[in-house]
Structure formats: C-alpha cells, structure tokens
Amino acid sequence: MGYLVTQVRIGAHKVGITGLEDTFREVQALELSGDDALADEIFARVKAQNYIPSGVEAEYRRAMFMEFRRFCGEQVVDDPQVPEIRIYGGD
Predict the structure, then answer these.
(1) How far apart are CA 33 and CA 38, in angstroms?
(2) Quick count: other Cβ atoms within 10 Å of Cβ 23?
(3) pTM of the prediction?
(4) What is the rounded average pLDDT of the residues 29-49?
C-alpha cells in the first residue's frame, strides 16, 4: 500500500483518503459481484487505513463506491444534494 492521498467529496466537504487507488485495484482483482459486496469490501479496506467518523460511515461508503465506479471508467452522476458554489469577478 502506498501513501498516495486522494481527495474525495464526502457530502459538502473534500476529504483526503490514503491508499484509495491501491484499494480499488485490489478490489477490482477480486471480481466480486454485486454493488453491495463491492461497496462493503471497499469501505472495510478504506476504513482499515483511514479514520472515518462513526456518524458519517454511510456517506463515506457511498462516496468510496462512486469513486470506484469512476475508477472503473463508468459514468457517475454527482450528488445533486451538494450545491456547487462559484464566485465570479470582483469589484
């Protein structure tokens, strides 16, 4: 496992996750079937290497699975509940 940190959006925040790409490669090689099995395996491996607050485990699990799908080249629709704020121009 490497020390590469990947920024992932969890709700309205970006969080650094250690070893995410290595985890994705390992889980991909397992050839698990079913989204729940994949999400559970990814989450368990990520949690073993990173601090995840107990109150937001479901959000982390979902975000890690969505990132895994992106990693596999699938189209993923971003969470519509998270607003994106952009500030243009100035005085």
Answers:
(1) 7
(2) 26
(3) 0.78
(4) 94
For 13, the enclosing helix (H) or strand (E) is strand 13-18
Residue type, 40: D
Q: Do 54 and 48 touch, CB atoms closer than 8 A?
A: no
Say how many Å lie between the first and final Cα of the chain, rounded.
48
3-state SS, residue 29: helix
CA 85 to chain centre: 21
Q: Residue ranges per domain, the chain?
A: 5-71
Which residues are registered as beta bridge partners of 13?
10
Average pLDDT over every residue of 61-77: 90
Q: Residue 78: its pLDDT value, please? A: 65
d(CA 57, CA 74): 23
From CA 54, how far away is CA 5, in angstroms rounded? 21
Confidence of residue 65 (pLDDT cuts 50, 70, 90): very high
Distance CA 36, CA 41 (A): 8
